[in-house]
């Protein structure tokens, strides 16, 4: 009967093949701490190739004090914005010789906690983290001594390192763009009210209306999940009452779900209802109609996040990035409309 589990090749096997000691093999593999004669080094390398030896990553991590891995914890990889951010972080980590381990919480706070514990147990060199409900497990990570960077807004009192876009300012600009079209009745589809980023986005929408001396109609605030289904359901509720003239959706997925609900009721965008959204990706450009959207600079943010982990000094830092409002067809810029 064939052996289904062949014995793992060890450093002792390499040493025997090379005719040297295990310590010398270790010096060659770890490039120190003691020098090895070139001829001996070559014999060890030839023996490694012949035996098929693969260094034990865990043992090397214990010896070097680094695992060459980072952990990334995000609410839901199905969100196009989060997947584009994860992709950029992975590419940037690779450029720095690091492997990025993804933890997808699936919008579940308990799973998020389990992922954090799992990654900390693996002794990752650092964590990149955005919480399901923006109430992160900061104390747990701090107690481990692991460097970490929050990828969104957190309570300033927590005094942690974070990168972010000013979401209140972004919501203000998106709403102001609708106002500049001449629209006066502007609703908002937002996330769950208890989330900090939802509060920021509602505040920006409200501030834009108040600055323009337009009414803020509480009945035109439609909280829902940051999903296509959530956008569909919120738009369906909106369609039960008086239709606003314009709408700010605080997430690209919500906007896409909203468009489906509007289409089913034959409400034309932008002719009857203008629409802008936050956290757009390339998906917004290829939708019909294309979505006017606020886009975050994910590549620049990823580059900064990885550099901050590599140069970690445990001094809290907030790095804020600018955003862009990319014009599509959904707001009416490309169509002549009556207000």
Could you characterize the architecture of this molecule?
Helix 1 (11-18) crosses helix 2 and helix 1 (11-18) crosses helix 3. The protein is elongated. Mean pLDDT is 90; it is low at 1-5. The strands form three sheets. It has a six-stranded mixed sheet, sandwiched between helices. The protein has a four-stranded parallel sheet with strand order 2-1-3-4. The chain has a two-stranded parallel sheet with strand order 5-11. Helix 5 links the parallel strand 1 and strand 2 (99-104). 39% of the residues are buried. It starts with 10 loop residues before the first helix and ends in a 13-residue tail after the last strand. It has three domains: 11-64, lambda repressor-like DNA-binding domains (434 Repressor (Amino-terminal Domain), Orthogonal Bundle), CATH 1.10.260; 69-164 and 298-321, Response regulator (Rossmann fold), CATH 3.40.50; 167-296, Response regulator (Rossmann fold, 3-Layer(aba) Sandwich), CATH 3.40.50. The chain has helices spanning 11-18, 22-30, 38-51, 57-64, 80-95, 109-121, 138-144, 167-180, 196-211, 228-238, 252-264, 282-286, 298-310, and strands at 69-74, 99-104, 126-129, 148-150, 162-165, 186-190, 221-223, 246-249, 274-277, 292-295, 318-321, 324-326. The chain has 339 residues and is α/β, with parallel strands linked by helices. The protein has 13 helices and twelve strands. The longest helix is centred in the first third of the chain and has 16 residues, at 80-95.
């Amino acid at each position: 009967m064939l052996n289904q589990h062949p014995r793992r090749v060890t450093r002792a096997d390499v040493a025997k093949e090379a005719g040297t000691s295990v310590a010398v093999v270790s010096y060659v593999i770890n490039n120190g701490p003691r020098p090895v004669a070139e001829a001996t080094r070559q014999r060890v390398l030839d023996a490694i190739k012949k035996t098929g030896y693969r260094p034990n990553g865990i043992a090397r991590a214990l010896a070097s004090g680094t695992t060459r891995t980072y952990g990334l914890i995000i609410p839901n990889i199905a969100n196009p914005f989060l997947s584009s951010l994860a992709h950029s972080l992975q590419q940037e980590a690779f450029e720095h010789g690091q492997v990025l381990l993804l933890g997808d919480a699936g919008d579940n706070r308990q799973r998020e906690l389990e992922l954090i514990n799992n990654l900390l147990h693996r002794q990752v060199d650092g964590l990149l983290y955005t919480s399901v409900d923006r109430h992160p497990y900061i104390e747990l990570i701090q107690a481990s001594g692991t460097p970490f960077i929050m990828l969104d807004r957190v309570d300033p009192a927590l005094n942690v390192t974070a990168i972010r876009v000013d979401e209140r300012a972004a919501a203000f600009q998106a709403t102001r763009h609708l106002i500049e079209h001449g629209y006066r009745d502007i609703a908002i589809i937002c996330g769950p009210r208890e989330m900090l980023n939802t509060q920021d986005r509602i505040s920006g929408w409200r501030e834009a209306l108040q600055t323009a001396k337009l009414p803020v109609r509480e009945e035109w605030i439609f909280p829902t999940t940051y999903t296509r289904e959530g956008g569909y359901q919120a738009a369906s509720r909106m369609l039960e009452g008086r239709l606003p003239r314009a709408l700010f959706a605080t997430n690209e997925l919500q906007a896409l779900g909203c468009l489906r609900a509007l289409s089913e009721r034959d409400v034309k965008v932008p002719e009857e209802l203008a629409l802008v959204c936050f956290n757009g990706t390339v998906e917004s450009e290829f939708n019909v109609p294309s979505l006017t959207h606020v886009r975050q600079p994910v590549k620049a943010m990823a580059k900064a996040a990885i550099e901050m982990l590599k140069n970690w000094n445990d001094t809290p830092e907030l790095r804020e990035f600018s955003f862009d409002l990319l014009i599509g067809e959904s707001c009416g810029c490309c169509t002549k409309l009556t207000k």
